[in-house]
């Protein structure tokens, strides 16, 4: 009996060795070189800040992919400081990682440094906020499309032809940010075709919910027949929502915003805080980003010589169109196979 068990164990161990060897890599003519591409590479992420959901999702995806494929992943967090970000980027250029992933604070501040990085042989992927410099890849939303969708929601909700006042207000973030600058262009282009819609206020709150609350409170008091507020980011627009609620006008003033589609957004749609929402699905962006990393590192083109884009499909969510899977959770991100 002991001999039988011993032989069985030896056979299982041998089988395990064979399975492990086979699992290391089957040569289909491409897979070995694919996996070898990533071993020992260094990928560095320079976000706006790590204090909110979007960069947290992207970073988790890169961390997961890095562990799976064998590249080293790290984050340099400037915590909303453009100066700190520029200094970090300057340092990274001297360190020469194999790939930089950059979330720009505005359209200009990193542009020359991104071009310099490419001249130094470092490929660059920009995520969701693109500078005026075009790099190896841009992964993210088309902000003009977002603006078109939000403006149409406002027009549909507030048209005098439907018995509404036609008065809307806009809560901007930072005018030089790509989100703000491009989205506002789309909103203005759309409203130019609808002269019956009047913008009674268009002010900036620097992406800060407290500032947005103060501005919105004043605008609502000055315009008792305000029909809608169009905001350019859901986190900031929580301040607008509070001002609407405090004025007793939840539902009477439509709040139209955009964001990455995390579960709290759907909760706010369900409870009537948000009336229109344009989602750019951050978890989908994370998959696009990891795909772009795989492509850029495999192709090994001269940095900047073959730029391309992966533009995020967007979806409009309202209480009527919302589904159980319309939004994601951080648990979904942790479980995703990036």
UniProtKB/TrEMBL annotation:
Subcellular location: Cell envelope
CDD domains: PBP1_ABC_sugar_binding-like
Chief location bin: other
InterPro entries named in the record: Peripla_BP_I, SBP_2_dom
Annotated keywords: Signal, Sugar transport, Transport
Cited SUPFAM superfamilies: Periplasmic binding protein-like I
One GO molecular-function entry: carbohydrate binding
Signal peptide range: 1-23
Keyword Flavoprotein: no
Protein name according to UniProt: ABC-type sugar transport system substrate-binding protein
Originating species: Kaistia hirudinis
């Amino acid at each position: 009996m002991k001999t039988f068990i011993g032989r069985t164990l030896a056979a299982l161990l041998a089988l395990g060795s064979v399975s492990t060897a086979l699992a290391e890599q089957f040569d289909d003519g491409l897979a070995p070189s694919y996996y070898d591409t990533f071993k020992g590479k260094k990928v560095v992420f320079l976000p706006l800040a790590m204090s909110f959901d979007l960069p947290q999702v992207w970073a988790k995806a890169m961390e997961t992919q890095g562990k799976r494929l064998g590249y080293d992943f790290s984050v340099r967090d400037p915590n909303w400081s453009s100066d700190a970000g520029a200094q970090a980027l300057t340092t990274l250029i001297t360190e020469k990682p194999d790939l930089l992933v950059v979330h720009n604070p505005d359209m200009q501040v990193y542009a020359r440094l991104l071009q310099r990085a490419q001249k130094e042989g470092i490929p660059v992927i920009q995520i969701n906020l693109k500078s005026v410099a075009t790099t190896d890849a841009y992964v993210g939303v088309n902000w003009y499309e977002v603006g078109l969708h939000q403006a149409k929601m406002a027009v549909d909700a507030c048209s005098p032809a439907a018995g509404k006042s036609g008065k809307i207000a806009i809560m901007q973030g930072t005018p030089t940010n790509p989100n703000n600058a491009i989205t506002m262009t789309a909103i203005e282009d759309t409203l130019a075709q609808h002269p019956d819609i009047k913008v009674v206020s268009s002010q900036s709150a620097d992406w800060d919910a407290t500032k947005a609350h103060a501005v919105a409170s004043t605008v609502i008091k000055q315009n008792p027949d305000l029909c809608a507020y169009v905001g350019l980011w859901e986190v900031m627009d929580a301040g607008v929502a509070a001002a609407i609620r405090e004025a007793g006008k939840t539902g009477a003033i439509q709040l139209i915003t955009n964001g990455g589609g995390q579960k709290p957004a759907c909760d706010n749609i369900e409870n009537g805080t948000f009336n229109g929402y344009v989602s750019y699905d951050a978890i989908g962006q994370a998959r696009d980003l990891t795909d772009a990393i795989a492509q850029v590192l495999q192709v090994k083109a001269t940095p900047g010589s073959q730029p391309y884009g992966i533009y995020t499909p967007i979806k409009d969510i309202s209480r009527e169109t919302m589904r159980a899977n319309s939004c994601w959770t951080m648990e979904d991100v942790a479980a995703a196979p990036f």
